[in-house]
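Bug #77: duplicate submission created two jobs. Keeping one. Sequence:
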Amino acid sequence: MPDVASVPPYRAHLRCFRGCPGQFSVYEVIYSCPACGGLLEVQHDVDALRARSAADWRQLLERRAGTSSFPYGSGVWGMREWVMPDLQDEHVVSMYEGNTNLFRAERLGRAIGLPDLWVKLCGNSHTGSFKDLGMTVLVSVVKQMMASGGSPVRAVAAASTGDTSAALAAYAAAAGIPSIIFLPSGKVSTAQLIQPVANGAYVLALDTDFDGCMRIVKEITQDNSLYLANSMNSVRIEGQKTVAIEIVRQFDWEVPDWIVIPVGNLGNISALYKGLKLLQDLGIIHKLPRLVAAQAGKANPFYLSFCNGFRQKVAVQASRTLASAIQIGDPVSYEKAVQAVTASNGLVEAVSEHELANAAARADLTGMYTCPHTGVALAALFNLVERGTIARSDQVVVISTAHGLKFTSFKVGYHEGKLAEVESDLANPPIYLPADLQVVKETIARKLQL
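Kept job's structure:
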């Protein structure tokens, strides 16, 4: 039986993030404020949502979580009134994304003196990254736009360093909508490249970096026949914000002390804050966790802006980093991310290639299989704990944004000791032996010190 809570009907619209007057339909092809050029955001009717009690909302979301009733079993569409309330069921494009596990990182936490450490494994999703959360909403909105008959949209397009392209291509293929992907040539992993190719996307590998791809896709989508799917599109943020809500639900509606997340274009930390702020506005939580934005030192514009007190936005030419998905020098969602950090009394941290690679390897030795971007977040956490900024009694969640299987060459390079600027402190290469029983027994004895 359908589980419908939308009585009275809830509404959402787009408005200027900076507060300019006016509002726009979420089904309109618009990405920035016509008055000031700033980003838009989806605004919900919070007063209408408050008519339902905090306890009732909690019960509703708990009842829906993991159900087989379409589309509520999705970790995103189980919160549909808070995401895209008037989207029709027949246009929802879902792979039952979300509902990813909150991993109790007990051994790793004990090793760094932080007993209450958790890792949110967002890579355990359809295309292997948290980007699925945003793309289910964006592609569903586009499907409804196209079904109306009045929309100029004929395809979706995005610049990507890997995970965005995989998610967009998969969801567009499921919807039967053409997708066009702009990738920086030679700067994404083979696993990330083949995902959109396999899903039938039109993949253009450009001789530039992500920022160059972003400039081109912003220009080309001025023709409204191509719908921009990057995180400057506020529709996508509505799906990504659900990870914050899901974390709080998994903690029985209690809030951790800290959430640490790797950042590049800054849509993810903006989405985290948006989800948490909605919970606070609805009286479901009464405090915010402190948010930490973690960057690779070779692509650290947000960190440099944080260092100047956010008085001025810093843009850099991002250098090549192992954390390729966040190799971004001019992040689009800067203003929203500043709000997220300042409103949560948060921090921005930057780490070296050596730190991120060894942090990932250290986590792997406790049963995880971390991508390099999760390594960035973990290295930032290690530094903050070591400095005493994060207390050893604090409860901390690290967001793991993608599955490590997307970055096999990173893993192989680490254990073969071939990564630039990295000393592989925890390398564990295979040992090649003859098929001789005695040699094998002696080798195992030495390893186990028998």
